[in-house]
UniProtKB/TrEMBL annotation:
SUPFAM superfamilies: MetI-like (SSF161098). It holds the Pfam family BPD_transp_1. It is found in: Cell membrane. Belongs to the binding-protein-dependent transport system permease family. Residues 85-276 form the ABC transmembrane type-1 domain. The chain crosses the membrane at residues 24-46, 84-110, 122-144, 156-174, 195-220, 255-276. This is Carbohydrate ABC transporter membrane protein 2, CUT1 family. It comes from the Bacteria. It is a multi-pass membrane protein. Keywords: Cell membrane, Membrane, Transmembrane, Transmembrane helix, Transport.
Amino acid sequence: MTATTQAAVAAPRRRRRGPSGHTIAVYVACTLVSLVFVAPFAWMVLSSLKSTGEIYEFPPSILPQEWRWSNYSEAWNALPFDRFFLNSLIVSGVSTAGAVLTSSMAGYAFARLRFPGRDKIFLGYLATMMIPFPVLMVPLYIIMRSLSLVDSLASLILPAMFTAWGTFLMRQFIIGLPTELEEAARVDGAGFGRIYWQIVLPLITPVIATLGIFTFLWTWNEFLWPLIMINTMENKTLPVGLLAFQTLNPGRTPWHLIMAASTLSVLPLLLMFIVGQRYYVRGIAMTGVKG
């Protein structure tokens, strides 16, 4: 048997070799880190199925002694939870659609259109990302009050529809797109509006999904701004509505109901991430190598 034949026979044996110690260590480390993030969520779900007495037991038990599925219906009916849920859907949905539209249009303009001071305007737009939101709260509140939008869902939607981060994300992605299709459409007489709607938008679907998921998550979980702007119970969103559960029993906070309501509020986010995960990962990966 020649040396070449021996090498060919030995090659499959080397390929069957198990994972190296470094690979196993990486998997173990990733598993431990994942458990750190999953543990609070698992504790919330298990606590939502406990009774009030079990919540306050010390030392606490991991599994409930009696699985109280009725906590979910009780949490749903204790307050206008359906109204909180609908308000959050309206605010997050409209804000996400508006942010995607305005950011994609602005990103396309900064990436493709040429006008005096374009780069300076873009840098100034990005500079607003360095201003902490607490600094902007008072001016924003004054603007909303002058527009008679205090205690309305519009006061939560309008600030979220315009985002410098989304514009930056769109611009970086569009810069890396080939210009041949746009040039061909321009030769055929298409204007910037038609090129944007029919050519650019279909090409930037991954980054649209990325921006949409981030914007939806941010607006869905936003607490401070709705707490400042919303006064009436019927206009509260879920994060502010969860705070109202503490007033149900002044003597003892109903943590089992709060945990059940919190679990219900997370379900749309999980569903959205599962549906858009493919586009989300693809958009992050492609945006990282653009322009």
